[in-house]
Specification:
alpha+beta; Glutaredoxin; four-stranded mixed β-sheet; 51% helix; 13% strand; binds glutathione
Amino acid sequence: MLTLFYHPLCPFSRYVRLILGEYGIEVRLVEERFWERREEFLLLNPAGQIPVLVADGQPAIPGASIIAEYIEETHTAERENRLLPATPGNGSRCAGWRAGSTTNSIRKSAARWSASAYSSGI
Ligand SMILES: N[C@@H](CCC(=O)N[C@@H](CS)C(=O)NCC(=O)O)C(=O)O
């Protein structure tokens, strides 16, 4: 079973939840108020940032891009259509895109959408 430490207003968490949703992966959600710097959470990620994914019995995986790669690596066999390209060259281009300015505009949109979804109770 997977557990995701997240917050509804966090665009990085939203990105991971979209991927989990696309793959139809069941996950236990733990809303983390990262600003409270909970001791148990800091043991998982000393940087104190969300999102963090924990697979039972495995070390915690912090950071949206790293979590995305983990999901791709562990669930690709279950899908015909991957979310990340299979070939190394295209995979690198995609990683660059995720880290680049286009991604930032998507994150800003996701943040706006998260805020309105949160205030309307979604
Ligand atoms: N590099 C991380 C950044 C995640 C991030 O900045 N999350 C924010 C919440 S949206 C956070 O945890 N901020 C608390 C802090 O930086 O102390 C990722 O890509 O997932």
